[in-house]
Amino acid sequence: AGYDAAEGDPLGGMKVSDQGYALMTERLTRHAAGRCVAALEGGYGLTVTANAAASTLTSLLGFAAEPLSSRRRPKRSTIELLSKCVEVHKAHWPVLCTEEHARRVKAAMNATVVVRELAGLQ
Fold first, then answer.
1. Any residues with CB less than 8 A from the CB of 44 and at least 6 apart, and which?
2. For 100-110, b where at least 16 C-beta lie within 10 A, e where not — what string?
């Protein structure tokens, strides 16, 4: 499951929260119609890895993950980078060409604008 990306891992340098692992697992399980397998891989801090793995397992057991707060929305640069990735992969993943996908990307971009305006960073 790549637990070296967990927030607080001494080697990974990433900041995926326990909540983030639960939400990713929840979404993967939903998209895979409930057929999901998790394997412990990576993670070099015992407590950090244990907490992230517990969040993954909790989600696999069907417990709902807490939604991210509005303060944890992705940065505009993150959305732009992911949009570039979509351009590369959409020929192979038809779902990335749907109106629903376009609507969600637009909503995500709009959410970053609202946050920037509230912060006075127009």
1. 4, 9, 10, 11, 12
2. eeeeeeeebee
Count of positions (residues) in the chain: 122
- Is the whole model's pTM more than 0.85, yes or no? no
Tell me how far apart the alpha carbons of residues 38 and 1 are, in angstroms, rounded to a whole number.
Answer: 6
pLDDT one-digit tens code per residue, 74-110: 777 888 888 898 889 989 988 889 999 889 888 887 7
Q: What is the DSSP letter of 6?
A: B
Question: Do the beta carbons of residue 68 and residue 26 sit within 8 Å?
Answer: no
The answer to whether residues 12 and 52 touch, using CB atoms and an 8 Å cutoff, is no
In DSSP notation, 8-45 reads T-TTT---B-HHHHHHHHHHHHHHTTT-----------
CA atoms of 105 and 122, how far apart (whole Å): 20
Answer for the pair 30, 73: CB distance below 8 angstroms, yes or no.
Answer: no
